[in-house]
Amino acid sequence: MDEIGNITLTVSGDPVQFPLMGSPWPPMMVLGTYLVFVLKAGRMIMENRKPFDLRGVIKVYNIVQIVYNSVALMAALYFLFVLKAYDLNCIQRLPLDHEHKNWERLLAYSYYFNKYMDLTETLIFVMRKKYRQVSFLHVFHHTIMCVFGYVYITFSGYGGFLFPVCLLNVAVHIIMYTYYYLSSVSAKVQASLWWKKYLTIVQLVQFFLAILYLINTLRQPNCDASRTVIYMSMLLGVAFIMLFGNFYVKAYVLPGRRKSQAKVQ
Asked: What residues contact 191, with CB distance under 8 A and at least 6 apart?
């Protein structure tokens, strides 16, 4: 912390500061405005209004997310397997004078910034009066990802051992937004529970794989990775498994059981 009164933080000794980094106030203001709008103000504004027709906006938003995450995925794979900047047996943050440090910074920051792009989805829900989709799971997931991203980069630096976890999440985002786009142009896809069910399964598998990776990192005593951050990441992963698992059971397991019981009766 270099300015205690203004709460200005450096990124783990890295002199490079991107927007929404350094001072915690900008991300706090963005997230505070987001929460006030989606939980209270937005609903008040829309109370006596008809839902906005945002079908065109939704299509463009989904395409932007698909392209953004696809480019990020390809760049990350190039960084890992062509530039070979990391030792995959023990991934550690690159030193400041490393030739590929700018790659690491840009990839890590692009992932972090995308968490703020994701907030747009909830704003669209509110403006379309789709309040049922503004669930605790949805709002918590989007908010905590921004918070955790800021905390991780600030105290652990850009990149490092969570790189594979973020890479996995980017791949899942491509699948997810591809589904969202297809459902926005096809009523058949939108009505299909098959897509929605397996999309949730993919998200759950992602969290399990992330936890297994973190456990494997813990088992390497000579790998210099912050144990505190690993435990925090694992705790967040468990929380997501519980929340997404609860959603899966309520959305896809219990309705099937009720239908089966109704047929028997």
From this structure: none
Alpha-carbon distance of 156 to 172, in angstroms, equals: 24
Confidence check: pLDDT of 88 > 60: yes
Nearest C-alpha neighbor of 175 from the set 209, 202, 194: 202
Q: How many residues does the chain have?
A: 265
**Mean pLDDT within 35-58:** 96
The residues pairing with 11 across neighbouring beta strands, listed in sequence order, are 14
CB 122 within 8 A of CB 26: no
- Give residue limits of the domains in the chain: 25-257
Residue type, 49: R
Mean per-residue pLDDT for 198-212? 96
Instruction: From 83, 149, 85, 70, select the one nearest 113 (Cα to Cα).
Output: 149
The token duo for 12 is 């783990």
Which pLDDT does position 7 carry in this prediction? Answer: 60
Active-site residue (options: 100, 141, 142, 173): 141
Tell which phi-psi region holds residue 22, choosing left (phi > 0), alpha (psi between -120 and 50) or beta.
Answer: left
- Number of Cβ within 10 Å of residue 3's Cβ equals 11
How high is the mean pLDDT of the chain?
Answer: 91
Task: Tell me whether residue 100 is one of the annotated catalytic residues.
Answer: no
- Angstrom distance (rounded) from CA 126 to CA 44: 10
User: What string of DSSP letters covers 70-109?
Assistant: HHHHHHHHHHHHTS--S-TTS--PPPTT-TTHHHHHHHHH
